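Propose amino acids for all 406 sites.
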């Protein structure tokens, strides 16, 4: 069988299993499927059926190492990003701009609304100077990105994609570009795909875009959601920066979706990182049996006792009655400080109420975070000090105070 006959059979099989919707040509932004019919050095061609043909950059078919992931005859799933008016070929793949040569090709890209590729040569007043097909162009600072870039010089030397928004003049035209227009268009396409999958419980890979006191914002593919600080981890997190950083890749689960209140509003998407982690309290009975000696750090103090961190998301409580070793204690701060490393014994475990009761062993305190106030002397010691007359009044006052507290 000849190569052309083999292609014909593949195309016929594809048309039978993927019938086109009549003879209507796919529009820009529409998802399409087709058979890969040839692969060149820079472009590959895809038969979309219904006499429609598309062109896609070979780089879109390669992995990060530059190896082709598809071969002739494979089915390609992609999107229409434009159309070459001269040949009628549909442009497929990503929003990446093509390299053009000379003013004539740049003018054609402008007429057709096609993205172009340019190299940022300098950061100038109000924006960027960009070289496109040997021509000097200008990209306003507001059009350099979707988000504000404080230091535009970080883009100098990079080869980026732009859309031509203004082209005037002759041999040395006034060429104005926008990168933001392409990024917003790409974001809209991603948002459509994400919105089709968006439901409570769905899991997405995302990127942290910003951190606030109350939580972290995550881009899940053209849409942004928020992970409240309480949903970052099972352990207590004071600020998102303790566990996340801007640009970090994360896995999140959708908790809630609140529809936009107005036509120009955005859906509020509540996300969780904690929901995808294993609950440490599932193994608490096994890991902290009654009678076991444990080591932890004092996390916080309350009038009724001290909370000791035993592991990520697990705190135990030393009740104030278990702090003094038989001595009456008015407040936990008389015995321990936040940050102290201590040893304790497990008295009880209640996994349903997420509680572990501890008893502090003062004789085995490991490390204090900071010096506490002067220890309270034993009454006998106070009396002994007062016998020489130097601390008598203090000793009497202390003895009276201790007697009243009994």
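Proposal:
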């Amino acid at each position: 069988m000849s190569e052309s006959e083999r292609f014909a059979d593949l195309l016929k099989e594809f048309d039978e299993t993927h019938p086109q919707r009549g003879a209507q040509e796919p529009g820009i932004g529409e998802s399409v499927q087709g058979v890969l019919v040839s692969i060149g050095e820079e472009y590959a061609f895809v038969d979309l059926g219904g006499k429609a043909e598309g062109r896609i950059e070979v780089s879109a078919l390669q992995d990060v190492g530059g190896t082709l992931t598809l071969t002739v005859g494979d089915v390609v799933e992609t999107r229409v990003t434009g159309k070459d008016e001269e040949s009628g070929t549909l442009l497929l793949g990503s929003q990446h701009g093509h390299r053009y040569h000379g003013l004539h090709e740049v003018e054609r890209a402008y007429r057709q609304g096609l993205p172009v590729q340019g190299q940022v040569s300098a950061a100038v007043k109000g924006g960027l100077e960009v070289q496109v097909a040997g021509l000097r162009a200008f990209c306003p600072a507001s059009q350099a990105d979707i988000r504000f870039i404080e230091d535009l010089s970080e883009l100098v030397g990079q080869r980026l994609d732009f859309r031509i928004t203004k082209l005037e003049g002759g041999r040395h035209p006034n060429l104005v570009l926008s990168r933001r227009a392409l990024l917003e268009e790409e974001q809209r396409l991603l948002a459509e795909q994400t919105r089709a999958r968006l439901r409570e419980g769905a899991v997405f890979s995302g990127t942290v875009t910003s951190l606030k006191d109350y939580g972290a914002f995550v881009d899940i593919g053209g849409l942004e959601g928020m992970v409240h600080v309480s949903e970052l981890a099972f352990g207590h997190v004071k600020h998102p920066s303790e566990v996340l950083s801007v640009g970090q890749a994360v896995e999140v689960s959708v908790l809630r979706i609140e529809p936009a209140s107005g036509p120009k509003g955005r859906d509020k998407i509540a996300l969780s990182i904690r929901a995808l982690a294993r609950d440490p309290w599932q193994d608490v009975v096994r890991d902290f049996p009654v009678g076991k000696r444990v080591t932890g750090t004092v996390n916080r103090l309350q009038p009724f006792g001290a909370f000791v961190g035993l592991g990520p998301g697990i705190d135990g409580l030393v009740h104030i009655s278990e702090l003094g070793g038989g001595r009456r204690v008015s407040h936990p701060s008389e015995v321990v400080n936040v940050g102290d490393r201590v040893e304790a014994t497990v008295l009880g475990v209640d996994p349903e109420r997420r509680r572990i009761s501890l008893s502090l062993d003062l004789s085995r305190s490991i490390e204090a975070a900071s010096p506490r106030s002067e220890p309270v002397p034993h009454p006998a010691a106070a009396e002994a000090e007062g016998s020489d007359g130097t601390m008598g009044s203090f000793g009497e006052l202390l003895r009276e105070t201790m007697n009243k507290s009994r």
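Confidence is low (pLDDT under 50) at residues 366-399, 401-406. The two ends are 104 Å apart (CA to CA).
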